[in-house]
Design brief:
With 400 residues, this protein is of the alpha/beta class. The protein is built from 16 helices and 13 strands. The structure holds (2S)-2-hydroxybutanedioic acid. Its cofactor is pyridoxal 5'-phosphate.
Length: 400
Amino acid sequence: RFEAITMAPPDPILGISEAFKADTDAKKLNLGVGAYRTEELQPYVLNVVKKAEKLMLDKGENKEYLPIEGLAAFNKVTADLLFGSENPLIKQQKIATVQGLSGTGSLRLAAALIERYFPGAKVLISSPSWGNHKNIFNDARVPWSEYRYYDPKTVGLDFEGMVADIKEAPEGSFVLLHGCAHNPTGIDPTPDQWEKIADVIQEKNHIPFFDVAYQGFASGSLDADAASVRLFAARGTELLVAQSYSKNLGLYAERIGAINVVCTSADAAARVKSQLKRIARPMHSNPPIHGARIVANIVGDPTLFNEWKVEMEMMAGRIKNVRQKLFDSLSAKDKSGKDWSFILKQIGMFSFTGLSRAQSDNMSNKWHVYMTKDGRISLAGLSLAKCEYLADAIMDSYHN
Ligand code: LMR
């Protein structure tokens, strides 16, 4: 009975926010969760989102249930944004797009599809990866294993290892890839490396499965950040892509995203969509409407769309400035000769510092700086004003 249930451990990412909240020290910093903050370290609602919400209010739209697959206008623009509106796959109706509960919910729908239609097939996950990936496939009862990704020696991509592990996996495995701004390392393959990864995946008849949670946050450009997905799509292979609008539109709590399944015919796409709906119905019945309307209004309107791009460049730019300042502070303080330039090479919201678990504990226990125990810090939660303090904390944790 309930008495027999044991206490679950705190979540490695969201649990950090809870610990941060409980800390009463004024110097505290939350660099755990990947959520954008202003220079004043306040949450940020994009102006373009406020405009879209005002439009929605003015229109006086109702709150009726959405269809199981979500808001049609959202599903259209989300595929356009990802694949490019001129992509022939869209005209040929080869993509099954279903609205999901942000990135996690969309990944979970796809995981259920894999469990049901590819029994025993394995998902290959990068080592390391976003902590929730393993949870999602575990809960969906999809077996997974890891492929090499991060090389601590170079603080870069272990490309040879990655390719070798993908090659070695049983034919027809699903290869989970981060579309851009790899979480937690901030290290992406180069365009040339992407081509080679696509070659191996095709050779082995694997199915690429992209998680796109940071479109626009890696380079500041929505199109450039979709290049990896489009490269695979252009090869005519089957493909899964989960999308999230939590970060790029700051719609964290709206839980808005989508799963896209690229098929080789319109017929197959229609069948896949019908099955995704069947999976979604007992999970969440039908998805929430508010975030879907916001995205549809912004991406579907040229003026708002351009305003979004400007705001996103501003957010990405702020993170880049913080990245530079942190690098400068660390380089100035560190007399050991350690090369910190890897921080500048990493992209997106995060920096993978190389701090160990014990060093991360020192960061929070002594310095009140909260970060995930894998050594990841969210630069989106850092201000220019706090870079010196953070650099002091890192120096102390590294060298003592
Ligand atoms: C993160 O990695 O910090 C975000 O994706 C938030 C989350 O849900 O874990």
